Amino acid sequence: MPIEKVEKIWFNGEMVDWDKAQVHVLSHALHYGSGVFEGIRAYETSKGPAVFRLTEHIERLMDSSKIYLMPVPYGVEQLVEATKELVRVNNLKSCYIRPIIFRGYGEMGLNPLNSPVDVAIATWSWGTYLGEEGMKNGIKAMISSFRRIDPNSLPPAAKATGQYINSILAKLEAIYSNYEEAILLDSRGFVSEGTGENIFVVKNGVIHTPSTAASILEGITRDTVMELARDMGYEVLERDLVRSDLFLADEIFVTGTAAEITPIREVDKREIGKPGPITIALQKKFFAVVKGEDEKYEHWLEYV
Fold first, then answer.
1. Are strands 139-143 and 260-267 parallel, antiparallel or unpaired?
2. What's the confidence (pLDDT) of residue 132?
3. What is the mean pLDDT of the chain?
């Protein structure tokens, strides 16, 4: 989906014209993937644009930076306010937000310590990541031949730019195999996550999802869905899942800032079927929450 150009990008503390927000071709992050980022959404509400769980996203961004020993020259509150200001400046009612911290131009080599740490925040209008049709009727997924990164190879708790090569390989495999998404297994052979989403399986009215032991990124949308589901009276279990749990599921859906809540209707030619009642109920609740229509969860909204 093409990026829709807006007026400004926040770059190292300043509002910069979109076309002037540039980095050097010899930036460390371009060559070695030494960056961390977040994906965040702002939704249109009756009170104006509201960024969903903004502070928690920025806190996770800082945690990712800490894991990779990248000193950030800004605090959480500064980046939260910069994000809100950027949405205002670009006059967006709803949008996707991409903060990134990366090692810039300075030195080349695997020792990154003498390369500067740059910080940028961009925002643009972006629709449903896996498509409106997929959101409504579900997508087809395959189990990838590529395994999810092992926690002792790369830390899954960090949302790091270079780590997503793993997901890109799985995504390309899925596309070339005529699927819309890939599901990765962890190094033990248990279900981990999608290329950019957490996964949930519904069986006999109980919701199951892999735990952090399966090398997942602890998604903020994942956490949202788990809390909403429990508040709605559903049992939610974090446990190891195997392939057959997917094949025999009553419902499957994936979650993420980009994907929101997207159903899966087929896995490796095994039909799961159209979105089920639990998936539909959670979708309805989720969109009511992010659009400011449920006062109980308004603390998750940070109004611009």
1. parallel
2. 82
3. 97
Average pLDDT over residues 151-161: 97
- What is the distance between the alpha carbons of residues 80 and 47, in angstroms, rounded to a whole number? 19
Which value, in Å, is the radius of gyration of the alpha carbons in the chain? Answer: 19
Whether the CA torsion 43, 46, 50, 52 is positive or negative: it is negative
Question: Catalytic residues, which ones?
Answer: 159
Q: Is 43 helix (H, G, I), strand (E, B) or coil?
A: strand
Confidence (pLDDT) at 129? 75
Contacts of residue 227, Cβ cutoff 8 Å, sequence gap at least 6: none
User: Do residues 43 and 50 make contact, with C-beta atoms less than 8 angstroms apart?
Assistant: yes
Class assignment of domain 132-290? alpha beta
How high is the pLDDT of residue 279? 98
Mean pLDDT of 152-175: 97
Alpha-carbon 154 to chain mean position: 18
Q: Is 237 helix (H, G, I), strand (E, B) or coil?
A: strand
Residues constituting the chain:
304
pTM value? Answer: 0.96
Domain ranges of the chain: 8-124, 132-290
Question: Does domain 8-124 sit in CATH 3.30.470.10?
Answer: yes
If one counts every other C-beta atom within 10 angstroms of the C-beta of residue 229, the result is: 20
With a CB cutoff of 8 Å and minimum separation 6, the contacts of 302 are: 50, 51, 52, 53, 54, 55, 80, 84
8 A C-beta contact, residue 19 and residue 8: no
Query: Would you state the structure tokens that stand for residue 178, as one six-digit string?
Result: 């005529």
| Contact partners, residue 164, CB within 8 Å, separation at least 6 | 196
Kindly report, residue by residue over 204-240, the tens digit of the pLDDT: 999 999 999 999 999 999 999 999 999 999 999 999 9
Element (H, E) at 232: none
CA distance 89 to 6: 10
